[in-house]
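Whiteboard transcription, Tuesday session. T.W. wrote the structure tokens on the left side:
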């Protein structure tokens, strides 16, 4: 089903909700210049259309002991459907993998991994290299974030 076009009010609603997902409908309606009922109806339409996919609390990795952030590039022996599926199914079960992308270029996949220590990263690395079809794993460690955004530019 095609996504309906967003008008200026939809964009304002999305910007407000991305800045504060716990905002009340009353506060949201005041910020965007709608009465509460039409505002809630628009939010529900954005949810039903799949534009709003959920609401979360953003947790500081450092405050929960996840101080090591690694970017891992993975190359497979073969890029056929079987090996892609094996890798994707396996990596989806790694709680340390925050993001995984199928890539173009030298690596087949790029992962963002959060762990509390280098020894924990070593464990992740060992599990990654045991996945059938993994040929090479290359890692870069993040020193500090420069730009980190959760809001999608609408």
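and on the right, the sequence the group agreed on:
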């Amino acid at each position: 089903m095609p996504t309906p076009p967003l008008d200026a009010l939809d964009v304002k609603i999305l910007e407000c909700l991305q800045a504060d997902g716990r905002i009340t409908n009353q506060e949201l309606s005041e910020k965007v210049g709608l009465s509460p009922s039409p505002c809630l109806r628009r939010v529900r339409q954005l949810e039903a259309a799949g534009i709003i996919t959920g609401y979360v609390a953003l947790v500081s990795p450092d405050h929960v002991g996840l101080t090591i952030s690694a970017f891992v590039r993975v190359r497979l022996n073969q890029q056929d459907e079987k090996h892609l599926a094996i890798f994707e199914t396996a990596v989806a079960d790694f709680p340390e993998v925050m993001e995984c992308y199928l890539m173009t270029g030298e690596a087949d996949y790029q992962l963002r991994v959060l762990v509390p220590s280098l020894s924990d990263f070593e464990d992740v690395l060992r599990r990654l290299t045991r996945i059938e079809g993994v040929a090479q794993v290359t890692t870069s460690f993040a020193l500090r974030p420069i730009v980190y955004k959760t809001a999608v530019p609408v």
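Someone added at the bottom: The beta strands are 68-76, 97-102, 109-115, 134-141.
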